[in-house]
Amino acid sequence: MREPAFMIAAPGSGSGKTLITCGMLSLLKKKGYKPRAFKCGPDYIDPMFHKKVLGIPSRNLDTFFTGKDMTRALYQQPEESYTHDISVIEGVMGLYDGLGGIKEEGSSYDLACKLRIPIILVVDSHGMSRSIIPLISGFLRYDREHLIKGVIFNKMSEKVYKTISPLVESELGVIPIGYIPVMKEIKVDSRHLGLKSPDEIRGLRESFDILAKTMDKTLQLDKLKELSSMAENLSRYKYDIKDVSGGKKIRIGIAKDAAFSFFYEDNLRALKAAGAELVPFSPIHDDILPDNLSGLIFYGGYPELYLRELSANLNMINSIRDAVKGGMPVIAECGGFMYMHDAITGSDGIDYKMCGIVHGKCCNMGKLVRFGYVNIREKNSKFLGKSEVIKGHEFHYYDSSDNGISCIVEKPVSGNSWDEVKVGQVSWMGFPHIYYPSNPEYVYHFIEVAKKYQEG
């Protein structure tokens, strides 16, 4: 028998998926369950809410990145030092919104189909009553696999719920799980097209506790548990990363603080499985790099919010510059790539000096420069096999005066492409966020060159 699982999805962004998912996870914990969470799509922020605020393991699953078999294999991987008894998957955007806004691939629905899990549709019901029925009806008609099993009505009063829920069940055959009233005291602020990170928002844990207490009164958890048991059995899928370290762990320094906080958990797992010992350090707070490193990784985040602190830490900047110029392998993507530059221009118009490894400057362009999924292929094979592709995505308002020309980066739907990324034999630096399980050769190469560096 398969473990219980369900997806929380919605007709569109802004319907309350993240808040309701966090409230649901908090409620399940309080009821004695051991939930784990997943986020559909490439978003970094929502898993932070699951992990940092609620203490629940959370990973990303993305059918564009990994297709059916690999996605199932990643889903079936156990959590580290945690035994779960139910899985909660938070959807992305609207239920059927996939690649390019026109494809099913990459959508929440595509993921639910590949995992064979029931969907709970969250409907923002503010200002609606009977009109909710044709809205839900349309989503049900589009559901060819009949995975939508239940509905939660967000921003609905108890009075309206008692009137409308019997009609929804009798006319549509879908189960009303409950409602959530308007709760003005609970709000999660956003930046750009995403939420602010948990560390920037005060009182989050308390807000989720309040939400969980309300949901305990307004949702029928027994019905939700019953629907979650409808998750279909899957065959076992294999996902293996080989250890290329030669038996001795390779110490890889990984920048990790308020400025650099965007991580894919399965990327970190792939590095460790390939033989890395991940050693966190803070470019903001630490004086120099940790001892005995054989490689460096700088992932994304919001370095633009900490330019003064990053620029003032000259000892760390010099330590990083000396290591990289001395041949230490390095990966730097998006915010980490920006940190490698000579300077970043802040919102105050000041150019803040950074590591000086990439001889250029990053500036806020006042608009989204690039957004969405990409396929990346090297012009000259170094990290990847010849003509091989690794998948990723871009999301940045800043641009560089030197983005590199080592790779051909292509949009998967339109086919539009451009030159980008700076790749050397031991370095990969550019704006795209890379998803390692889409091509583990990337990991193998990095660990192998780090091993050579370690051996001198």
TrEMBL record:
GO terms for molecular function: ATP binding; cobyrinic acid a,c-diamide synthase activity. Residues 7-190 form the CobQ/CobB/MinD/ParA nucleotide binding domain. CDD domains: GATase1_CobB (cd03130). Its cofactor is Mg(2+). Residues 251-398 form the CobB/CobQ-like glutamine amidotransferase domain. InterPro entries: CbiA/CobB_synth, Class_I_gatase-like, CobQ/CobB/MinD/ParA_Nub-bd_dom, GATase_3, P-loop_NTPase. Keywords: ATP-binding, Glutamine amidotransferase, Ligase, Magnesium, Nucleotide-binding. This is Cobyrinic acid a,c-diamide synthase. The lineage of its organism: Bacteria, Bacillati, Bacillota, Clostridia, Eubacteriales.
